[in-house]
Model the fold of this input.
Amino acid sequence: MVEWWLQALLWILPAYAGNMAPVLVSHSNLFGLRRPIDGGRTAPDGNRLLGDGKTWQGLLAAVAAGGLVGLLLDTWGYSTLQRGALLGLAAILGDLAGSFSKRRLGLTRGANAGLLDSMDFITAALLAALPMYPWEFRQIALLVVANPLLHRAANVVGYHLRLKDVPW
Ligand code: CTP
Ligand code: MG
Done:
């Protein structure tokens, strides 16, 4: 039995993999799927529905990465392929909701939206993960508080590895 905080991080790890995977593959065009999910469409407010930063490739990469991490964690009983894929999907749907909100606020692709950029995916992932595990309140609280820091750290690393154009 590992520490409660480590257990919480392991349970949610596929969601982080899902959130990071689109960036890792963003310089490729796998199966020609680096196409915007919104198909270039705009909303009545004149701004894009989601924007060019939200692609089919990213969505599939998130599900695949979540599933892969879930499969790895299955070795120690912390996840499964299915749970991981579901958390990857939830994370990327939360990310899409975040981008939809940013566009409605008039923020262009890649603009810094502060907490919205980090909390969108984790909120959706935690909702999906709630019925999967016997969460304690302190575990959820830890993930909510630590997420902006973890997200920021991952983005700074991604920026210096030239995977991301901006460190947020
Ligand atoms: N990405 C993708 N498909 C997704 C999500 C992300 O291809 N569904 C890739 C894009 O190359 C994107 C990068 O990952 O630019 C970083 O993701 P994110 O920061 O979420 O997107 P932004 O470009 O910042 O766009 P937004 O302002 O909508 O958040
Ligand atoms: Mg961004």
Remarks:
- The CA atoms of residues 160 and 167 lie 8 Å apart.
- The helical segments are 4-24, 56-74, 81-104, 115-129, 137-160.
